[in-house]
Amino acid sequence: MKKNVVLLRVSTDMQDFNSQKNGIDKYVKENNITVHKIIEEQGVSGYKTKLEDRLGLQELIQMAVNDELNSIIVFNQDRLGRRLEILSFMTIMNEQNVKVYSVTEGLLNEDNDTSELIQAIKFWTANYESKKTSLRVKNGKRATIERNAYSGGVANFGYKVVDRKLVINEEESEIVKFIYESYIDYGHKRTLELLEEKNILKRGDKWTKTKMFSILKNNIYRGKKQYQGELLDFPELQIISDEMFNKAQERAKSRNTRGTRRYTNRTDILFEGLLFHKCEDGIDRKLNIDYVNTTAGRVHTYRCKYCKETKAQITKNFISTKLEPILIENIKSIMNNISIKELEHKYNEEITISTDKITKSIDILNKTIEKKKKAIDSAMNEIEKIFMGESNLDINIPSNMIKKMETEIEELENQMEVHQNELEYLGDTTSNAMYLLDKYKDFEYIYDNSMNEERKVILQDLVNKIVINQDEINIQLNIY
């Protein structure tokens, strides 16, 4: 026997439960309706809880599909949820010949072609297909993403669209790999320099820090796509390994977190991992540790593997006993001559300029997003006019515009997140630099009175990188 079911939904404030129940009791009594089942949805909001997460509605859908449902009684239409989601639910009820009664509005799905609701259902059915097999109505964009990760718009760098499917662009994917590898080894500044030196562009445009970090922060490159807080897997789109992605995130985090610099402690060698060699081709490459026998015994050296393999005609091996004292004296000289006041002034000037630039970009993005949201509202208003028979516009025009605007808003919000991360990065970097400057303002005294292992920690903390050229040494500290 088919059943008549009452749906009672109470939002989180729980204030109107009794009024709903009393109204429904009176309605079924006056209309001689026998109630076989009552479904209560406690503490859910029809405007915040998604249709697929509404257990009460899902139970009703299952009963309808199983031909167990005759009618549903609700207090009013909004107790079912947001209007557009109601349409998906009502489509299924119509297909299963289930009547839906509202205490305040009467029969919601009456056989009247002029009914605004039925016209809306017909439109919604044409755009969002109900899937009985899954017993849920999925958002069209999510379904598209679950199939292929492409939901419209311009494909991410490293990919292209073929037959409306996202596939890897082999040429661009090699650039993505290069960016990750270079960033992990050298950081963002040197990576941007290398991209410029090699004349590598992003679809005709010069690479910037923002563009680079949009690559480094995007899960799509490890074969994952985020949708409404959930990471969906797309192994066929993976360009880099999870390990490489995580290393890039760790490096970004270590640059933004005071006192969390990663130390290289495989040996007790002072400058392990900090020395780079300016090779004949102009590229900085990290020096490896090697050992040689001398009259004073076995000592370590810093060796450029690349220059050795290419038989470069420049110095490529550096004896530690000669090089390290020179480096230490240079670092002492730099620290002894630094003016904290001047450096702080420099930081404040630079961060103000950078912050203003990023803030303006965020403001432009916000305004653009608001314009697109207003465009969506206008399209929705036009759809309502079509429902009411007040407009002859093709329904697909506002429908497609809404989809397009939603995709563009998502892309703009991703750009916004990158800019907000940059703002945080600026503040944290400056804070870290001033912290180190204060910590090592008496560098010479601290260093000279430390044990060798402690000296290595100090250098790893203070030094970003040291580049050795044929006739000069470039020392880059983490304080400027």
Automatic annotation (TrEMBL):
InterPro entries reported in the protein's UniProt record: DNA_bind_recomb_sf, DNA_bind_recombinase_dom, Resolv_N, Resolvase-like_N_sf, SSR_resolvase
CDD domains, A to Z: Ser_Recombinase (cd00338)
An annotated Gene Ontology molecular function: DNA binding
Recorded coiled-coil stretches: 362-429
Keywords from the UniProt entry: Coiled coil
Record's keyword annotation contains Coiled coil: yes
Location of the Resolvase/invertase-type recombinase catalytic domain: 3-148
Keyword Transcription set for record: no
Originating species: Romboutsia weinsteinii
Domain Recombinase: 156-258
Name used for this protein in its record: Recombinase family protein
